[in-house]
Amino acid sequence: xxxxxxxxxxxxxxxxxxxxxxxxxxxxxxxxxxxxxxxxxxxxxxxxxxxxxxxxxxxxxxxxxxxxxxxxxxxxxxxxxxxxxxxxxxxxxxxxxxxxxxxxxxxxxxxxxxxxxxxxxxxxxxxxxxxx
Length: 132
Prior knowledge:
Radius of gyration: 17 Å
Order of helices and strands: HHHEEEHH
Oligomer: single chain
Number of helices: 5
Shape: globular
């Protein structure tokens, strides 16, 4: 009995956003017209285009962005991989990098005080607000 592996339970289906919900989310973010809201828009576009994990996203450095590709170095299985960007995401990411400018950290996504953005900050920022 010790050598018998237990069957895995089926995992719950993860809820996703449909196209209308994504468009509404982007429109809501664009209303703010701040660096932080623009950064959040770019983060969402990168997530949607590439399917990267949150931990992979915070590990992206400016030099990892090369035109319409991003090299993902901090992966779950420790193998680097290349992800591709749509034209829209590539344009917005290029704008973000120009606006971001040169700062101390090489990480792509910055906090309000020009420090590298961490996982918790993104989770908090993008979590749906209750009662809205």
